[in-house]
Amino acid sequence: MRRPWLLIAAPLATALIAAGCSSGGSSAAPATAEPTTAAPTAEARSGIVEIDTADGETLAADIEVSKGSSATVVLAHMRGADRSTWDPIIGDLKTAGYNTLAFDFRGYGGSTGTRDTNLDVDLAAAVGRARADGAEKVVIIGASMGGTAVLEGGAALGVDGAVAISAPADFLGLDGAAGAAAFTVPLLLIDTEGDRPYVNQLTTIEADTGAALVVFSGSAHGTAIFATHDAEITSVILAFLDRIGSLGN
User: What is the SS3 assignment for 171?
Assistant: First the structure.
């Protein structure tokens, strides 16, 4: 059922997320156990790493490890940027008990290859690295073109949840709208009221899928929202992650 288009503060956002966390008709029931405290099955260490893609490119990534966590948040940046744009939230995620893996898409930052190609392949490689490092739960968060990659390919990657910030419905051959419809795990959409046409596209995806939608004031796009609504957007994302942690498999 479609929820109204909202401009919300963090406490109301938390309530919205709790109500709309199970996207795509998921029937997961609440559980009392906290799944983020198990020891990793492989030793992961904080630092810069290289990730090989299935088609022969090498991606640069920053990994931050929260001691004792087996939940990893994979961060996919927006066009014209790089993995450093996630710096405003990485510390908060680590403090909250989540490992993070922020990577550069091919051709950006320290990664090889041609820019703005095969975004889905790069995202799959990053998720694969998180699992190889022992992640038992993986959530993917993408901004703008990274958000479209998250929407398009997230369901097929078998992640535990996804967040798309200012994501175009389609971009560089990726069909985010169709991909969003395939999600059976929690999906959160975030944008600002003046970020057109993307906020309109996310509103349509929200209506079609039942995903949770959070709309802030202003017109900031992608990770630029951290500059205008840092505390609020961080609170919304952490509430979403905590909600996933309380859901059964």
Answer: strand
